[in-house]
Amino acid sequence: MNTKNNTNALIHETSPYLLMHAYNPVQWFPWGREALDMAKEQNKLIVISIGYAACHWCHVMEHESFSDKEVAGVMNENFISIKIDREERPDLDQLFMDVAHLTTGKGGWPLNIIALPNGQPIFAGTYFQKRQWTNLLSEIFDLFKNSPDKLTHLASEIKQGIERMDFVGLVKDSVLFTAETMNTIIDSWKHNFDFEWGGNKGAPKFPMPVEYKFLLSYLFKYSDDDVGKYINLSLTRMAWGGIYDTVGGGFSRYSVDAYWKIPHFEKMLYDQGQLLEVYANAYQLTQNPLFKEVIEQTVAFVNRELKSPSGGYYASLDADSEGVEGKFYVWTKDDVVDLLGSDAELFCSFFNISSMGNWEEGNNVLFQTISEEEFCAQHNLQANPFHTLIKECKNKLFKARSKRIRPRLDDKILTAWNAITIKGLVHAYRATGNKSYLQDAIEASIFLKEKAIQEDGGLWRSLKGEDGAINAFLDDYALLIDAWVDLYQVTFNDQWLLMARDLCEYATCHFFNEDNQLFYYTSVLDDPLLIRKSELADNVIPASNSVMAINLFRLSKYFLTKEAYHTSLRMLKNLSGKIDDYGKYYANWQRLKLYFIHENYELVISGEGKEKARDEFLMDFNPYIFIAGQSDAIPVAKDKDSKNLTFYLCKNNTCSLPISSILGLKRMMQEG
After folding, report:
1. Is the pLDDT of residue 450 over 70?
2. Does 204 sit behind a cis peptide bond, omega within 30 degrees of 0 on the bond before it?
3. Rounded Cα gap, residues 39 and 45, in angstroms
4. Which of 207, 567, 610, 651 has its CA 20 to 30 A from that of 357?
């Protein structure tokens, strides 16, 4: 281990999060064979500490405990200490988070695990103050020395519990998916809808794009005023709230309250990409100008703050700057008055800025509670001049803010999160017609094509500079396949669909579990962990298995592959019990279920003007139609040559007679 200049083994890593700890007095190791073998050889307990670069409480514990020589002395003498970036190693994070949920009923970051010398976990917790941490370490070390059998028994119980948590068997009975059962599930969700502030009831409030995405697909087939109101309210309140950076664009990870008011200030790439898609789909349905403004500002933020020169996108921005949470983003009233002069009073009234502050220490988060139209009516103002005034004031704040010390950037490029962003940009293009968004999606895709694909056709998880690191996990494959299918639909460039198919075949070969017809999260090529897990429940990001099931369904439509179709159906059936009982935690699976309940179409467009006709169709939100351009490389689109503009509407691998009229085509789709 290199100890020169008080560094530890993390000095050789590329993860910004790991490098933050490289100068700690704790003798950290990265996860790997060296540290694990050392623990066995020296018969030492293992501390496994997991976090990420944008995590505020990770920084707090690093400063309070891991930078403290007294704490380091305890850890170095009695433990082998391992630091993990959860974004690089989500497989380890999932496994150890299960330990936390199993043993404590809760989780979070930093996630701190204590394990036996053989790597089996015996304790899990999150943030600890210095004294709490040292007392805990001493207690467990004493138990290890004096009663090791108790810890061995505990480790065995924890392992068995994790295995039970992950068990899914085959469902051999015929499972019927019906509109009636779907409506029953939706009705059960409504009890958790917050019809005053949007989102789910209570605090903290997380944007749940997977849920909104499913509900938008549901609304396309069902008339439900409550669901429509809920989505519109949620997206509006989020855009008004402090969770959305109205000055510079982009969403924070969540709000600490029930009103979207005070954000936890870190900005994650995956939130931006998913919310871009949701706001784009909602804008297609409603033409709400607020939603379009959010799209435009969020793309501008992503390209300004997170885009690399090579075309990929960085992972996140920290919650802190200058060691203070949110400092970059908040304002005192005096700040605003100095910048805006006579316009400040109206601006402060609209955004709830006060001399006392609406947050901590006299600081304010910009937080809107009513629309511009309502505010103008209350204050007898003209709407258009007021809108212009607000826009000009925000520009002044943006210019002033740009001179502040910026939050720290995590410059990892993660394949899965870039895929999410590509998909979001594609949908932003579909909703607005702004071709620069499509160009951004293509640039990021070319970057991944050139840098993220290994020689054997597999993917890298993480990219830093020109180098790939860490063999990819299922979400990297699933989300990139999903993004490239969408990119194909807006470009008719066969390469994206063909590469999506190739990645799907690779994932099936290396991740598929024949026993339960689902996918493992880790590749067969990876070193085995305590257990080989599968990611099943949808969360802030959809579960990799639910995305793969939808990928198989969609690819079956393009490549006319019955096996892919039936695998998708089997996956859905095997999860049907969990999906029906815990519907809101399986929102993306519910979206797949809609495909099996309702008819969907493949639309092949051929002939002169097919790109223009394609773009006309894509401007409308219709999640139940899969568009292809004539191509002999794509089975559904093969042998459909035509000189003049022609449409082929296909269903269940059977295509209608060619149609030359867009109006006639739309009439045929309406008639079913």
Report:
1. yes
2. yes
3. 7
4. 207
